[in-house]
Amino acid sequence: MREGQRRVLVVEDELTIAESVAARLRAEGFEVELAHDGPSAVEKAGQTVPDLIVLDLMLPGFDGLEVCRRVQAHRPVPVLMLTARDDETDLLVGLAVGADDYMTKPFSIRELAARVHALLRRAERNQQAGSTIVLGDLEIDPVERRVQRAGEPAHLTPTEFELLVHLAGRPRAVVPRERLLSEVWGWSDSAGTRTVDSHIKALRRKLGADLIRTVHGVGYALEAPR
Predict the structure, then answer these.
(1) Which sign, positive or negative, has the C-alpha torsion 13, 83, 39, 1?
(2) What is the 8-class DSSP label of residue 175?
(3) What is the pTM of this model?
(4) Please, which of 102, 150, 165, 174 could form a disulfide with 137 given CB 3.0 to 4.6 Å?
């Protein structure tokens, strides 16, 4: 592994898909490790300490949700989840256990590589974050990546954390979905607005339904809590 090279763990039981994803990511300059079932994925994540995991939802042994739970229990790591079903329940559960983004099969290998780069850029921005943000009973510490409301800690995924910080940087201002996609996810089109909506739902579930206001047809605003 070259100095500065990022490591990606690809967890996929369909060998053709796994090899195609691995080949593209290696061509993009990543070191790639492969796992093909739940137990070996958790073991390799502990051994290789990847910078990011591309994780299939349906796996032998135990599924991607359980892999995500076990890996995130040891250390936060960006996770791009792959699913064969475009089911909102699967998506919300995946986000709840620590996934940061998702793609539905069949997917573009080129788009997957772009998503990987975007997730890693967000992780780097989080590491360079500044001072603590206090808005009423909401406290966000970007350095230690801690969030609490009314003294109660909330456990957020890396993407949920960056989305919250982005909204908290302009309290009460309405931020369009397209702008959130561009500035938080690094996407240049508006095809992923459902991803924004799903992460907002997760934040409301963890921090309170009153925290983020929906402006229908436009976007979202963080209400300054008391």
Answers:
(1) positive
(2) E
(3) 0.65
(4) 150
